[in-house]
Amino acid sequence: MSFSLLSPRPQNMNQIQWIPVQPEPTNISLVAALLPDDILFLIVRLAAKDDLPTTLSLALTSKAVGRAAETVLYNSVKLQSRPAIRMFCTTLCTKGRHILAEVKALALEVPTPKLFDDFWAVVSKRCPNIETLTVREQEIEALLRPEMNIRPLRLSIFGAVGNRQSKHRESLLRTALQSYHAAGDSTPPEKRHDEPDPQLWSRLTHLHVASAWPSVPYSLLFTLLRARPDQLGHVTHIAARAGSTHQLVAMWEEARRLSALRVCVFQVYIPRKMWANILPRDPRLVPFRVGLGPRDAEADHDVSEGDSGGENPHWGWAEDKIKEKEALAMRKARGW
User: Which segments carry the region annotation Disordered (predicted)?
Assistant: First the structure.
């Protein structure tokens, strides 16, 4: 608070008249005086939704408006390079927790840099509400560490890249082959009684494994995940890629052991006639043929909104196919 002296030459201090002078209003104080925070945040979020340029402009308007805009900016984060990963890690260490708690979707299109193991530890601590997670397959080992608190609802796993790919693949293939010869499948061994289940699987409902694997006669699903069926008890939707008829059958044998499974989408690269009489007629199973573009392996027609790179698990399309199968089965049962 500032003041003004009306008498230039007062005889004593008792003759001074103190008149309070209010400070100049700031942008923040004007906004706060006009709108409650919850209304302000709602307006900014609606204005910024689905419009990145608007969000960035609002974030620079003022601190008050910027706080609201940042919750939209950090709602979905996609990191496409290693410098971007390092920059986001710096942001994790400096931004307020209330903003980072708004991160609902996190996608890493490249693996975390080597010798940069603290990235997932910081994410686990600062972003507790991640619902959708997209990573490269070599990140799974770090995400399964006991101290991790990353609990997505949807998880997409893409193939390894860079120099670490070959060693990572060789290790997984060796583990799967040993399990296959020892027990007839590639399921990891039973856990010890003192071994807690990883938090990564605790809420997971949708699992998309987009890695392309060699045409081996066994499944690599549980080997890649380092998981057993009982740890994936909430998974209702699963999508994966199969390179051969034998692998397709082996993957289904693993997937059907998931107790909550409702939708299983397999992307295949082989004609229907090679597996039509081998694969069981389970209504939950929806084959997905990949050629020049994704095709419905059963009806042999193009699938809308498809891709040939395995990036889209096509949950909605598969659910519609399952409903069609159920409706057809019901009509046949009633003799229609």
Answer: 297-317
DSSP string, 9-75: S-SSGGG--EEEEPPPPPHHHHHHHHS-HHHHHHHHHHHHTT-HHHHHHHHTT-HHHHHHHHHHHTT
Q: What is the mean pLDDT of residues 142-163?
A: 86
Q: Residue 291 carries which DSSP code?
A: S
Q: Is residue 92 part of a domain?
A: no
Q: Look up residue 219 and give its amino acid.
A: S
Position 205 pLDDT exceeds 90? yes
Residues 52 and 190 in one domain: no
Residue 213 and residue 144 share a domain: yes
Residue 157 has pLDDT above 60, yes or no: yes
- Whether 49 is covered by a domain: the verdict is yes
Residue 191 belongs to a domain: yes
Q: What is the pTM of this model?
A: 0.76
